[in-house]
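Bumping my old thread because nobody answered last time. Still need a sequence for this structure:
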């Protein structure tokens, strides 16, 4: 039973639109508000008369009388107050019944959707910009599932572009075993000596021909990159339904390009192949260079076809890539539409990550790798944990801090709306207070500790009338709002809605913990409060699961 369902009951009884029932700015003014002047105007009645008619209906209806405590007129609004015990009993019943599926819905009607993310380049570091990508993509998959979609995560690895040849050029010269450093060094050298570009092109030609020493080095260095990527995915529990590689789809892409030329969707221009989309105000998109080598669209066309073949009934294909690719995504979507593909291409953009001292760039070689940042955070946590838990073994501390470091990094990537730039500050990320992972995870550990101390067993013994403090009633209302947050986060493609909800939940719980002696009092009150905080923990774990963050039992 969520607030939307209660709104529908009230609206049906009062013969009004449920959408007209809004949340007042201050919860103390009521649970719902109805703008009276607008309703009076629509019904050609005075505000006083329309208000009296509504209040008379409420008094004469048994179901409404069981739901509503009272109504009050405040200015131009009729405010509705729900009976606290009614709402508490409904919400606790639902949470304890559905547990990790509380708030989930069937709005998606099992429509097949695919989320393509982690489109990383081999031969470069997996840096924190990529981390934002996989965290955002994973969260969207989970959130869409919670809204009734059949959503699948796929990855597309760019393992065949000119960047691989650039990395190999320096790698051959034993510049470094670090492929990202090799790539950055070659870029630097090319800026100083344009002739190096010709040598890089020859390396790329060998790779495309699948022969020779350069091709062997490509396979060797590619495996190094893929091993690193898989370590990141494993650490973050990211699992893809399907992984595609540019090297595996590129030949199919050339065949699709030839067909699109025959269909006059693509055209030859000065020795190159382009998509002229000026008529759609989308400019011109190069497809194949003058020298016959492929640009990104060649593989992306083949990738779109592969997804249609692999995912029957595919309706929407979401490509999670940074905001710079907005125009390109529109161009690709238009080409596929002209070619008759059924799937709709949707770009899910996100902004950049910066550090307090400025932007990062793989090209400049100053991007922070995922593993270096992970190790820094883990080391900070180990120092702090040793202070707090002198009796913990080194093995236990290491394992706990590994999990915490992953959770902290994910949280920092997800707490900001995709439309906003993240300025990552490691000092803020590892605090135990403030808008961060440790604040929420520690709050959840505190609830688990209370339940353990009380030897709580899920007995479903509760009575909403015992949750009679204001903070308890506010928390119940917050739990009731969770299903709406799941819907809103999907409709707005914004996982930060769930993060903000979690933070507010534990702000309120910490106030509750300070104000109320949870483990004392009458046994019936204790049973209700234990079921209540257990319900809080279930919703928190539910939300963390959608974000791909694993809760801990101890911190």
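Sorry it took so long. Here it is:
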């Amino acid at each position: 039973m969520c607030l939307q369902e209660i709104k529908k009951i009230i609206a049906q009884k009062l013969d009004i639109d449920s959408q007209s029932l809004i949340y007042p700015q201050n919860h103390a003014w009521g649970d719902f508000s109805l703008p009276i002047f607008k309703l009076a105007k629509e019904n050609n009645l005075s505000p006083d008369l329309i208000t009296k008619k509504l209040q008379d209906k409420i008094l004469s209806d048994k179901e409404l009388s069981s739901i509503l405590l009272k109504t009050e007129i405040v200015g131009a609004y009729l405010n509705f107050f729900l009976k606290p015990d009614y709402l508490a009993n409904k919400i606790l019943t639902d949470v304890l019944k559905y547990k990790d599926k509380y708030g989930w819905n069937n709005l998606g009607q099992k429509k097949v959707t695919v989320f393509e993310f982690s489109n990383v380049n081999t031969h470069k570091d997996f840096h924190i910009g990529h981390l934002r990508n996989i965290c955002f993509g994973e969260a969207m998959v989970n959130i869409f599932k919670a809204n009734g979609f059949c959503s699948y995560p796929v990855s597309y690895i760019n393992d065949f572009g000119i960047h691989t040849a650039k990395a190999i050029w320096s790698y051959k010269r034993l510049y470094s075993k670090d492929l990202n450093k090799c790539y950055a060094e070659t870029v630097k050298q090319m800026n100083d000596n344009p002739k190096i570009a010709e040598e890089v092109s020859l390396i790329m030609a060998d790779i495309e021909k699948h022969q020779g020493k350069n091709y062997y080095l490509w396979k060797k260095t590619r495996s190094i990159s893929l091993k690193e990527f898989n370590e990141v995915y494993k650490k973050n529990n990211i699992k893809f339904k399907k992984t595609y590689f540019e090297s595996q789809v590129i030949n199919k892409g050339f065949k699709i390009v030839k067909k699109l030329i025959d269909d006059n969707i693509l055209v030859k221009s000065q020795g190159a192949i382009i998509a002229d989309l000026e008529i759609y105000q989308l400019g011109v998109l190069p497809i194949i260079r003058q020298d016959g080598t492929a640009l990104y669209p060649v593989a992306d066309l083949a990738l779109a076809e592969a997804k249609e073949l692999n995912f029957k009934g595919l309706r929407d294909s979401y490509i999670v890539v940074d905001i710079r690719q907005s125009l390109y995504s529109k161009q690709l979507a238009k080409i596929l539409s002209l070619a008759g593909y059924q799937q709709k291409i949707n770009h899910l953009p996100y902004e950049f990550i910066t550090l307090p001292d400025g932007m990062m760039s793989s090209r400049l070689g100053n991007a922070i790798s995922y593993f270096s940042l992970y190790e820094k955070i883990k080391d900070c946590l180990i120092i702090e944990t040793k202070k707090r838990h002198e009796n913990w073994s080194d093995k236990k501390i290491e394992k706990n801090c590994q999990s915490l470091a992953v959770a902290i990094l994910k949280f920092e990537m997800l707490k900001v709306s995709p439309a906003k730039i993240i300025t990552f500050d490691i000092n803020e990320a590892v605090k135990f207070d403030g808008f961060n992972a440790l604040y929420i995870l520690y709050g959840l550990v505190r609830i688990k500790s209370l339940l353990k101390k009380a030897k709580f067993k899920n007995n479903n013994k509760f009575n909403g009338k015992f949750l009679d403090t204001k903070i308890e009633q506010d928390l119940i209302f917050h739990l009731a709002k969770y299903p709406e947050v799941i819907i809103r986060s999907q409709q707005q493609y914004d996982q930060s809605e769930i993060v903000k909800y979690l933070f507010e939940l534990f702000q309120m719980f910490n106030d509750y913990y300070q104000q109320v002696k949870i483990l004392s009092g009458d046994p019936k009150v204790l049973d209700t409060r234990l079921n209540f905080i257990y319900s809080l923990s279930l919703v928190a774990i539910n939300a963390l699961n959608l974000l791909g963050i694993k809760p801990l039992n101890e911190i």
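The two ends are 34 Å apart (CA to CA). Let me know if any region looks off to you.
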